[in-house]
Amino acid sequence: MNSKRLLILAAASALTLGGLSGCATPFKADVARFQQLPPAQGQSFTVMPGDQSLAGSLEFAHYADLVAHRLVQYGYTRAADPAAAQLVVSLDYGIDKGTQRVRYTGMGGRFGAGPFYDPFFYPGYYGGWRGWRGRYMMGWYDPFMWGPGFDDVDTYVVYQSQLSMSINRAGGERLFEGTAKAQSVSSKMTYLIPNLIDAIFTGFPGKNGEEIKLTVAPEPKG
Q: What does residue 7 show for φ and ψ, rounded to 5 degrees?
């Protein structure tokens, strides 16, 4: 089946169009899903770590609870006894050490008197928001595009975060595979992982072979 690409933009609070300093910045998430899940009819499930070193971790238990909450919303039942669960959900996540980036914010930019240059810039709609769609909004908006001054150069660190989730029958048959990846100027796991969980469950379970691009709301200040 051909992949279907959806462009969805998360609703974000008003951003100050200045430098990165003091500016809340959303991150883009790329989600891919492959699935042959039968309709939800209350099937029981348990959530297990993909990395067995996380077994018994309070951190993992927190994220497992978030995943379980979403599955219950979609009509599944969390098993009281994990050994008796009909479905086994495997969850894995992580974040890299970050990569330094450079942006040119002045009118001179990289292209002389041409437009602003930013490695995150995507051509398309960036002149304003186009209609509310719950938490997400259609169109592109790039918070890195604008900056003060003429021929200014800023450096910042971008982190790559990733979440992987699979669902198997208790007998081992694979029913769902999904990954969500994001680039962010935030490295806070307690912010990134819940947003990646939200991303992977947007329109869950989705169409087989579906790819979705998301821009997730910025981290709240304070």
A: -110, 115
Tens digit of each residue's pLDDT (9 = 90 or more) over 198-208: 999 988 999 99
For residue 115, tell me if it sits in a domain. Answer: yes
DSSP category for residue 15: -
Domain span at residue 58 reads 5-216
Q: 213, 212, 210: which is closest to 1 by C-alpha?
A: 210
CA-to-CA distance for 135 and 140, rounded, in angstroms? 15
Q: Per residue in 43-74, pLDDT tens? A: 999 999 999 888 899 999 999 999 999 999 99
Residue count of the chain, please give it.
Answer: 222
Residue 181 lies in a domain: yes
List, as one string, the DSSP characters of 33-62: EEE-PPPPSS-EEEEEESSGGGTT-HHHHH
Q: How confident is the model at residue 111 (pLDDT cuts 50, 70, 90)?
A: very low
Cα dist from 18 to 6, 105, 111, 188, whole Å: 29, 10, 21, 22
Would you state the structure tokens that stand for residue 33, as one six-digit string? 């899903």
d(CA 158, CA 156): 7
Alpha helices (runs of H) in the chain, residue ranges in sequence order:
58-73, 189-200
What is the count of structural domains for the chain? 1
Single-letter amino acid, residue 31:
V
Q: Is 87 exposed, middle or buried (0-12, 13-18, 19+ CB in 10 A)?
A: buried
pTM: 0.67
